[in-house]
Amino acid sequence: MKAIFGVLSLVIVLAVIGSIAKKQLFGSGVAGTGLAGRAAAADRAALAADPGGAARATSPALPSAETVPQQSKTLQQQARDRTAGALQQGADRNQRADP
Predict the structure, then answer these.
(1) Mind listing the pLDDT tens digit for each residue in 2-31?
(2) Whose CA is closest to 78, among 52, 49, 56?
């Protein structure tokens, strides 16, 4: 009897974990897309987090002629640039807030 309940509880736990994983992957619309689709989803998420950033947001340029390492370096550089811009924006905001 204990074995039946053990197996049944294991199946239920696996079903719940599978359901959560499915929602995480397919709910965001990122799963099954290529690198450009993921970058576009990341842009949408960034714009949702910072609605005022629509004017300065640029879509990552990923020409198909680039190799994967080049695309990786491009995305890394864009992430560095955006992070530096966000840090600068925060520093400017703090500076304006100080009397």
Answers:
(1) 899 999 999 999 999 999 998 888 876 555
(2) 56
| The overall pTM is greater than 0.70 | no
Structural domain range at position 45? 35-52+59-99
42 and 90, same domain (yes or no)? yes
Could you tell me the two tokens for 42? Answer: 């990341």
Q: Is residue 51 within 8 Å of 65, Cβ to Cβ?
A: no
> Does residue 18 sit in the same domain as residue 5?
yes
Same domain membership, residue 45 and residue 12: no
From the number of C-beta atoms within 10 Å of its C-beta (0-12, 13-18, 19+), residue 94 rates as: exposed
